[in-house]
Amino acid sequence: MELLVASAVGILTAAGVYLILRRRSFPVILGLSLLTYAVNVFLFATGRLATGAPPILNKYEEVAYTDPLPQALVLTAIVISFGMTAVVVMIALGAYLSSLDDRTAMPAEPDGAGDDA
Fold it and tell me: What are the two backbone dihedrals, phi and then psi, of residue 50, each rounded to the nearest 5 degrees?
């Protein structure tokens, strides 16, 4: 189970970094989303991978439990990533509407355009 979760985090991270390095704004947004999913799965896995274990302690008997703190961190990260994605989509939409192109790279300057002499 740990190998599956670790490989899923690695694949999501690799795909997210690959998409962030693209030149269009839509793949960059998808790459950021994949990176946030990778972080969420990583945070969730830090609370031990236990199925059927309650997230609370029982003071009367010794049972295995799941740590509730990573679950709260994942819920917070989901809300933050949703807000961040909305902001990035609005910035990309504004850039597209102003230039009618969604490339993220700046165009090259013609020769002599940067000279102050």
Answer: -130, 125
From residue 62, how far is each of 53, 57, 79 by CA, in Å? Answer: 12, 9, 34
CB atoms within 10 A of CB 18: 12
Cβ neighbours for 29, distance < 8 A, ≥ 6 positions apart: 85, 88, 89, 92
The domain in which residue 25 lies consists of 2-50+66-99
* Distance, CA of 70 to CA of 78 (rounded, Å): 12
**Region for 100 from its dihedrals, namely left if φ exceeds 0, alpha if ψ lies in -120 to 50, beta otherwise:** left
**Residue range 19-55, pLDDT digits in tens:** 999 888 888 889 999 999 999 999 888 877 667 776 6
Q: What is the pLDDT of residue 101?
A: 77
Is 41 among the domain residues? yes
- Count of domains observed in the chain: 1
Q: What is the pTM of this model?
A: 0.72
